[in-house]
Amino acid sequence: MSILDKFSMRGKVSVVTGGNRGIGKAIAVGLAEAGSSIVIAARDEAKSEETLTELTKLGVPAIAVKTDVANRDDLEAMVETVAKELGPIDVLVNNAGIGFHANALTLSDEEWQRLFSINLDAVWKASQVVGNQMVKRGSGSIINIGSISGLIINRPQWHSPYGISKAAVHHLTKSLAAEWAQSGVRVNAIAPGYVKTEIASTEYEDYRHYWRDEVPMQRYATPEEIAPIALLLASEASSFVTGSVFVVDGGYTLW
Ligand code: NDP
After folding, report:
1. Which residue among 21, 57, 130, 232 is least enclosed by CB atoms within 10 Å?
2. Is 27 touching ligand 1 by the criterion CB < 6 Å?
């Protein structure tokens, strides 16, 4: 097998939660370009259909399954649909996530719970539902999208629940990696720095000094710069990598 063959995803089935826009979409396109069948698991059906049109042009089977990742029934139904239409899942990318700025003194319990239900609980539930099947088959790769916010405290904006949820995602990654290492299932995370997507679209200009000028590389990332790392972690190219958190931040966390 040549080194480039190790990156091939031909014959694989990959699920990307929140794969209809932003980082998730770039990852879905990247895995499709490497030959994988793709499942978009997100809520906005119109947006998922748009992304599907782009994916099918790449010549791979692709489906969209309307899924609220916070809902275990939706996740179980999604896995059943995928099994019927494409076969068992080889790769799960837990990418769906939300973020908002929040002052620790005034944040409501409801907002805390809403964020954790998507950013952390859903990663746990999807890993459990899909991981069950992967452990039985003795193979699979799970990639969780964490954040540099799980490693450092961002400024000037406060968003402690977001950072706490991402720190927990990193630890969840390591815990499951250890538990499933002998079952042939690898679990890794990617911790991106500031990536220009809808999650914070109105804020990039306001916080340009902190979010861009203070990055050693002096720019934001594009979603397409995250996708190759996901391909590395999804494919045979990373066959001895598990429990890692890959920082992709243009050097932001260096100082
Ligand atoms: P976007 O806001 O552009 O996209 C978020 C995606 O998540 C959408 O596809 C959305 O689809 C999906 N989503 C949200 N809630 C749910 C839900 N309950 N069920 C299913 N899907 C859901 O965000 P990004 O692409 O920027 O972020 C993607 C991931 O990367 C997130 O986990 C984020 O925290 C992380 N990240 C982002 C960074 C950045 O600077 N952009 C930096 C570091 C990490 P729909 O609404 O259709 O359900």
Report:
1. 57
2. no
Query: Which amino acid is it at 65?
Result: V
Q: Ligand 1: which atom is nearest the Cα of residue 48?
A: 47
Residues assigned a catalytic role: 162
Instruction: Output b/e per residue, 152-168; b: 16+ Cβ within 10 A.
Output: eebeebbbbbbbbbbbb
114 lines ligand 1 (CB under 6 A): no
Cβ partners under 8 Å of residue 221, min gap 6: 192, 193, 194, 195, 196, 248, 249, 250
pLDDT digits (tens, 9 = 90+) for 120-165: 999 999 999 999 999 999 999 999 999 999 999 999 999 999 999 9
As beta bridge partners, residue 192 has 248
CA of 246 to the centre of ligand 1 (A): 18
Tally of CA atoms within 13 A in the half-sphere of 239 that contains its CB: 7
- With a 6 Å cutoff on the Cβ, whether 18 touches ligand 1 is yes
- pTM (two decimals): 0.98
CA atoms within 13 A on the CB side of 69: 32
Domain architecture of the chain: domains with CATH:
5-254 (3.40.50.720)
